[in-house]
Design goal:
Radius of gyration: 18 Å
Oligomer: single chain
Strand order of the largest sheet: 3-2-1-4-5-6-7
Number of helices: 8
CATH topology: Rossmann fold
Order of helices and strands: EHEHEHEHEHEHHHE
CATH architecture: 3-Layer(aba) Sandwich
Number of strands: 7
Bound molecules: nicotinamide-adenine-dinucleotide
Strand content: 15-25%
Length: 260
């Protein structure tokens, strides 16, 4: 399997997991749009990945919660390269509070980035995929698509929601050879997680070491973090898989934290 000349869009690709996925796709020969909030950051990553090849990358500015920006970004990629074959809806944030103290504005912001972002980017990319005779949509879920943790009401709700959206797209678009799947990583050391360690320590009244050992890795089989490379490899398989045998699925990449 490879992604030679496949046209891919990865949201939130200026950092962390998204950047690793974009790198894996370029290494597999893909043409990859790095979609993120700031154009300069997206372009810097695109230059870095293009230099490694053999595929290439371009940077686009896109706030995934803004319909006009999503549509403009997808149109820009389609005009430059001729359509879209693969979408990875990956952009995301984390906000933790006990539910009784969760500001409604934070709740709406988090749901909008994860759920509106997945909906808007899918809606914009599907017609481009139909024109190309099919495609692959990948949502960045989480073990929190299947598990709950204290303080994460908005995140757990959003990540559960992505399973439903992927399954509907898999059924609606299956006849047009468009697949939709969800990757469910355990904790991966990215800026998103580094920020949570002191926040959770304070909210739960425990040390940062205990947050890592008990809260983040306590249920894994080997007390190891999942890596961005682990997640990128699974994204590659979902992107390049040749048939609709693999659609409507969610795959945990979590060192055994969740096995459902
Ligand atoms: P990260 O903070 O390293 O990267 C997130 C990227 O998303 C950033 O580049 C940011 O600018 C971008 N972004 C944020 N809001 C955006 C918006 N409105 N429009 C476009 N881009 C936006 O985080 P990460 O850990 O790489 O997380 C990526 C995804 O993986 C998220 O959906 C996250 O929920 C999911 N995830 C992360 C972990 C983990 O442990 N790190 C585990 C499971 C799932």
């Amino acid at each position: 399997m490879d992604l030679k000349d496949k046209i891919c869009i990865v949201t939130g690709a200026a950092s962390g997991i998204g950047k690793a996925i974009a790198g894996r796709f370029v290494a597999a020969g893909g043409r990859v749009a790095i979609a993120d909030l700031k154009l300069e950051a997206a372009e810097a990553v695109a230059r870095e990945l293009t230099a490694k090849g053999p595929g290439k990358a371009m940077g686009i500015a896109m706030d995934v919660t803004d319909e006009a920006q999503v549509n403009a970004g997808v149109s820009e990629v389609a005009a430059a390269w001729g359509g879209v074959d693969v979408l990875v809806s990956n952009a995301g944030i984390q906000i933790v509070h006990p539910i009784t103290e969760f500001p409604f504005g934070d709740w709406k912001k988090l749901l909008s980035i994860h759920l509106d972002g997945a909906f808007l980017t899918s809606k914009a990319c599907i017609p481009q995929m139909e024109k190309r005779g099919g495609g692959s949509i990948i949502f960045m879920g989480s073990v929190h698509s299947k598990e709950a943790s204290p303080l994460k009401s908005a995140y757990v709700t959003a990540k559960h929601g992505l399973l439903g959206l992927a399954r509907v797209i898999a059924k609606e678009e299956g006849p047009k050879a468009i697949r939709a799947n969800v990757i469910c990583p355990g904790f991966v050391k990215t800026p998103l997680v580094e920020k949570q360690i002191p926040e959770q320590a304070q909210a739960l009244g425990i040390s940062e070491k205990e947050v890592v050992e008990r809260v983040m890795l306590g249920e894994t089989v080997d007390k190891e973090f999942t890596t961005v490379e682990d997640v990128a490899e699974v994204a590659f398989v979902f992107a390049a898989f040749p048939t609709a045998a693999l659609t409507g699925q969610s795959l945990n990449v979590s060192h055994g934290w969740n096995m459902s």
